[in-house]
Known about the structure:
Layout (H helix, E strand, L loop, with lengths): L1 H16 L3 H6 L1 E8 L9 E3 H15 E14 L2 E12 L5 E13 L2 E9 L2 H7 L5
Parallel strand pairs: 1-6
Antiparallel strand pairs: 1-2, 3-4, 4-5, 5-6
Amino acid sequence: MSEENVEVVRAVLAAWNRNEPESVLSLLDSEIVFDATRRAVNPKTYVGTEGMRLMLADRDEVWAEFRTEPGEFVDAGDRVAVIGRWVGKGKGSGIEVQAPTAHVFTVHEGRVVRWELGYTERREALEAAGVTA
């Protein structure tokens, strides 16, 4: 089942990077927990489909473009760690910025039930996913 979980996460990030909110939402559990408390700007947790819609609206207020470029997917059973970088272009400034990032997704029955982001080190994300680095 875990390889299928990696494929679900790949699909979520692909839809995210194409800026297709409805496609992203279709792959998430209706009670999704989006934990962004580790990020420096607007640390917050969003819950449920409406929470995700709010998060996407918050993102779109600041960023003209925003994507996650995955470099590595680490299969940890019901969790998948994604190591890569995020790239964004400021809505007001037009300046492109990027930084290393790592996410941990928890997948249950083919849907993402938890999405944690804001890890800046591979080791942290792997530990959060239950993998010894």
